[in-house]
Sequence to fold (174 residues):
Amino acid sequence: MDIKKRILVDMDGVLSNIYEQFKRYELEDTGTLIERSETLGKTEQEAFVNSLKYVIKKGFWRTIPVMPNAIDTLRILNKKYEVFIISSAMEFPNSLEEKYYWMEEHFPFITWKQLVLCGSKVMAKGDIMIDDHFKNLDYFDGRALLFSQPHNFGKENRGHERVEGWVEISKILL
Ligand SMILES: [Mg+2]
Fold:
């Protein structure tokens, strides 16, 4: 019996398009439309100065748009690999329940046993990790895929493999 390789997949900025959500909230709250070009190379908090106010609002995590092509690609990956979804939820405890129901709505083929809603990811073990933050990838001792997001734009890859989206991931891993 062959053993499937284990993939650890991040949620925010990988499965979920959190920049679009911040843009929506900012527009609704202040009337300001923040362009992608204004967010490049900045941290999320620098790009969206009101973000800490939005993430604690009820419904913020539950209504984030899905990243393009994430559903179809993950559905196929889930057959070929041992998939775990690993996401930091404890900084904003209200996010935990909303993230669970968000996954159930958009990725019903991922079971609750595959969800790791945690504090830090430094203890996570696997063969492949897909994440948009160096703070997670730098600790990982497998193959690390850096998912391009505005905050890591223009930054060195630090030895990780940069991917531009789910179509590219499907070409690399399927
Ligand atoms: Mg992330």
